[in-house]
UniProtKB/TrEMBL annotation:
This is CRISPR-associated exonuclease Cas4. Gene3D superfamilies: 3.90.320.10. Residues 184-262 form the DUF83 domain. Its cofactor is [4Fe-4S] cluster. InterPro entries: Cas4_exonuclease, Dna2/Cas4_DUF83, PDDEXK-like_dom_sf. Keywords: Exonuclease, Hydrolase, Iron, Iron-sulfur, Metal-binding, Nuclease. GO terms for molecular function: exonuclease activity; iron-sulfur cluster binding; metal ion binding.
Amino acid sequence: MPLINLKLHANVSELTLYLKCPRQVYYAYRNHTLVPEITAEYLEHMMLKELSLGYPDAIERTTGEKQNIHDELNIEMERVKAELELIYSTELRDLPFKVLETAESVVSEQIDSIAMNLSETIRKHGREEIIQRIRPCRTEPVLHSDKLKMTGIPSAIVHYKEKMVPLSIRTGKCPDSGVWGNDRIHIAAIAMLLEDNYEDSVEHGFVQYARHGNIRKVKIRPEDRRQVLKIRKRVDTIKEGILPERKEGPICKYCNFTKFCTTTKSSLASKLF
C-alpha cells in the first residue's frame, strides 16, 4: 500500500481553527507551534474528556437514578485521577501538585450536575439508547481521504444502529439547544471522512458536552457538507502562502501567536477570508 502524504491533506482541526481565526491556520502550518500552557483550567478539559469516556460504563452499572449515577461517576473520577498522568505523561511532566489538585476539585464539583443531566437524558431516551450513542468502538482513530483531500482524528466512533457514526467530545460550555456552529462543521467533516473510509452514508453524529453531561444528536445537512468543502479550500489557500487579513477580536487576548501576528498589510486575496 503506498504511503500517503498527510501534509497534503487539510486536517479537520485546521477547519475548526479557521473558524476561530484564519490567521491561526497560517501560523500553525508554518510550525509556529500552538502549545497551550498547562494551567488548572486546561487540565480540567483533559479530565472532563477522560471522565466522559467512562460515562457509558457508569450508566451501564446504574439503575438510572441520579444518586446512583452520581456514585458511579465518582468511581470513574477516581479512575481518571489514577490514569491521567499515565495517558498524558509528556504533557503533565513536572506538573505542580497544586495545579492538579485545583483541577480535580473543580471537575469533582461538576459531577452532581453531570449526574442530573445524564439521569434526565436516560429517562427521556432510555439507558440502552444513550449507551449506544456514546460507547466508542474506536477512540481517536486517524481517518484520511484522498477524494476529500482531508484527514482528521475524531474523539471517537460509535456503532449506532448498524452505522459507524462520529462522536465529538466537547469540554466547554453547552448551548441551550442544538450544538455550536463550529461543532456542527466538525461533526460534518468527520462524517464525510467516515463515509469515504467505510463506503456507507452517515446521516448524523453526536456531540457530547462533557462538562454538563448533555448529549446532542446532530443531523448532517447538505449545507454543512458544503461549508466543510468551502472551508477546506480556504485552508488550502492559506497553507499555500496567503496570509489572511488581521481582525481584532476577544480571542486575540488568549492567542499564542500574538507575537507573530503583527502584519496588518492586506491584499485582495487576504480580504477573501
